[in-house]
Design a protein that fits this description.
binds flavin mononucleotide, TIM Barrel, disordered C terminus, alpha/beta, Bacteriocin As-48, Chain A, eight-stranded parallel beta barrel, about 350 residues, 15 helices, 2 domains
Length: about 350
């Protein structure tokens, strides 16, 4: 939700209505990571990794693969609703698959207009659509018309492709096509993931628009969240890499705005999750999967926990689950935790 001017100041004071969304991150925020992060608390909604739509209606099993939470009425174990994200370039197949996602239990449907991957952009999907707001309109309108109005349709955008000169047109397309909400990653495709995120570019383009807006980009700490709210005028925020480097960031932000005491997650606790929640264990994948996903997460954790640097260096060359687990266990102090965290 977005407010401007005096109303914004007033609203930010009553921040307890703030919503935090866990960002979609392909190859990183999968079912198990969503489970772990939402178990820790603070999130109001998760968005899945993108499901690529080319032409046909996808088989149900594809939706279950990306969103196993569909087996739980579309909720994570902690009860956080999950929304399926679709990525494609053709309106009709996207609309058909959106309906299927909803029928299977997705909490609304999200459309990806931000993916910078060359392969995706070459086939006219993801961020390249930002060059053509009219086409974005056609896609969103088709999906909105196909999906029952009681379900939310959201769009995830960047400020533009090469530059932000079309950012107003992009927002106008999203709003006039009838999307209920838009998550704005406040950078262009060309900016990639390089800091800063231009939160201050959000208020002018959404001024007077009747749409819920979620600000996204470069929120690594509670202070960033507060600054992002102030600069973007948005109460609702989406957390991506910050939530991986700082697994209880959402909980910390909520505690901060609600004036509640919260100690924060110790490194030993994070380590416990690395080992015991089997976050990177997938029996369907080969041996190297566990090692590579553990290294990937440690790569994010390094930013918040210096201990992760040592651990990362130690497992850097290891390839098997057995070898990596042996090192993790050596470091673990096995704190007493709620058995709810085992899986
Ligand atoms: C590895 C990676 C994968 C991503 N995958 C997706 C995706 O599947 N769909 C999407 O809309 N955005 C995707 N994003 C973008 C994030 O959702 C988010 O907009 C971006 O990381 C900026 O937020 P942050 O600074 O909080 O990380 C991805 C980003 C990264 C780094």
């Amino acid at each position: 939700m977005q407010f401007t001017g005096k109303l914004s100041t007033l609203f930010l004071k009553y921040n307890r209505f703030m919503k935090l969304v866990l960002a979609p991150m392909e190859g990183v925020v999968d079912f198990k990571m969503r489970q772990l992060l939402t178990d820790l608390g603070g999130f109001d909604l998760c968005v899945t990794e993108f499901v690529r739509v080319v032409q046909a209606r996808l088989p149900e099993k594809v939706f279950y693969r990306y969103c196993p939470e569909l087996n739980n009425n579309g909720y994570t174990r902690a009860g956080t609703p999950v929304r399926i994200q679709l990525l494609g370039q053709e309106a009709n197949p996207l609309a058909e698959n959106a309906v299927r996602a909803i029928d299977l239990g997705s909490h609304g449907v999200d459309l990806n207009f931000g993916c910078p991957a060359k392969t995706v952009n070459r086939s006219r999907g993801g961020a390249v659509l930002l060059k053509d707001p009219e086409h974005m309109y056609t896609i969103i309108k088709a999906v909105r018309d196909a999906v029952d109005s009681k379900h939310e349709v959201s769009a995830k955008i960047r400020l533009g492709f090469d530059d932000d000169s079309k950012s107003q047109e992009i927002i106008d397309a999203v709003v006039s096509a009838g999307a209920n909400s838009v998550a704005i990653h406040a950078r262009t495709k060309r900016d990639g993931y390089n800091p800063p995120a231009y939160w201050e570019k959000i208020p002018p383009i959404i001024k007077g628009k009747n749409i819920a807006v979620v600000a996204n980009g470069e929120i690594w700490q509670v202070e960033d969240a507060m600054l992002c709210q102030k600069r973007s005028g948005c109460s609702d925020l989406m957390l991506g890499r910050g939530a991986l480097s700082h697994p209880d960031l959402a909980k910390k932000i909520k505690a901060h705005v609600n004036n509640e005491h919260y100690e924060g997650l110790e490194w030993e606790h994070v380590l416990y999750h690395l080992i015991h929640s089997a976050i990177h264990h997938d029996p369907a994948k080969d041996e190297k999967y566990f090692a590579s996903r553990t290294k990937q997460w440690l790569g994010y954790l390094k930013r918040q926990y210096p201990q992760a640097i040592t651990l990362f260096d130690e497992i850097r060359r290891l390839k098997t689950k057995e070898d990596v687990s042996a090192v993790l266990k050596k470091y673990a102090k096995a704190p007493q935790l709620d058995s709810n965290h085992d899986s």
